[in-house]
Structure formats: C-alpha cells, structure tokens
Amino acid sequence: QKEREGEQLQQQRSEAAKVRRAQQQCKARLIQERRVARAEARVAKAKEKANQAAKRAQKKRSQKAEKLLQSRIKLAKKDAKQGSKHPRKPIKKKKQVAEAVSSGEGSGAASPPPPIVLFLSGLAHITLPERTSLNASHDELGGADGLVLALDVAGTGHVTTYPSDEPTVSVQLPLAGSEGVPAHRVLGAGPCAGEGQVVGG
C-alpha cells in the first residue's frame, strides 16, 4: 500500500512539474511576442515619421520650385512689355550660342550670315550691344509667348564685335495654324536701329 502511495505521489509531482514547465514556456512565448510586437510598432512608427518628413520636404521643394517658376514667368512677361531695368538672379542652367566667322569685327554691312536659334520652352534673355547709352534687354518666354527666334540680321543699324555670344535681335512668330504661312505679326523689321525695335510679346 505504501509503495503504491509513493508511486502515485511521485507521478503527481512529475505531472505538476510538467505543468509548471509548460506554464513557464507559455509565459516566455507571450513575453517574446509582446517584445516583438513592441519592436514592430516602433519600426512602423519610425517609418511613418520618416515618410511624413519626406512628404513635407518634397512639398516644400515643390512649393519653392513653383514659386520660383511663377516669379520668372511674371518677370518675363513684365520685361517683355517694359524692358528689363534691373539685374537678373543667376540661372544655374545656361546655354550660350555663338557664331564664329572669319572676320574679326563686324558692323553695319560687315555683319555675318544671320544665325538663328529657335526654342519652344524655357527663358531667353535678349540683350543689345552696349556701345551706346541704350541698354535695352528683355526676356522672351518660349512656349508661353509662342515660337521665338533670336537672330542677327545683316545690314546697318547696330554695332557689335564678332564672334559674340550676345544675341542682338529677337523676333517672335506666334503659331496659329498648320497649313501655309501661320498668322503672325512683325515686332521688329530690319536690323537693330533703336529701342523701338525691342518689343515684347
């Protein structure tokens, strides 16, 4: 009888130990799962915070770029009517076009063949030679003002040195039609003869 009671007691103790181990393992798993959940929540929060910061930075850059573009468009349209009377802020992206000829200096009839530059977008700053008191310059906005041609015509009326990277005449032909000669208006005919021929769109 005593032996059976001892065996039963030993079996009960063994089962109790198994239950305690199972409970401890379950508790450890719960603790680990909570730690993982907290870590994942921290990572998700950090990602969301980083995404919000990136969106704010992108929005700020977009607003700044839009503001700069609108200010340049407004300035170009104003200068096209009145002429530029104040210095420009530096533009980072520039492209200069120069026509090199055999003669070292050109004036009047010695002008080279007319180089032509076309652009449908962007901003062209047109400046006349500063050989006299006249300091006429203005902006033409490609695309918004139509098809813009910057060229130097042969003939009298202006003095400059060649080769040169300064465009001297700006002619604008607004596009209106696809057949034949499109509707247009001449803003300045002939060589550069004075301030009256520097006309904005």
UniProtKB/TrEMBL annotation:
Tell me the segments the record calls region Disordered: 1-25, 37-113
Where are the compositionally biased (Low complexity) regions? 98-110
Residue stretches of biased makeup (Basic and acidic residues):
37-50
Q: Where is the composition biased (Basic residues)?
A: 83-95
The protein's name: Uncharacterized protein
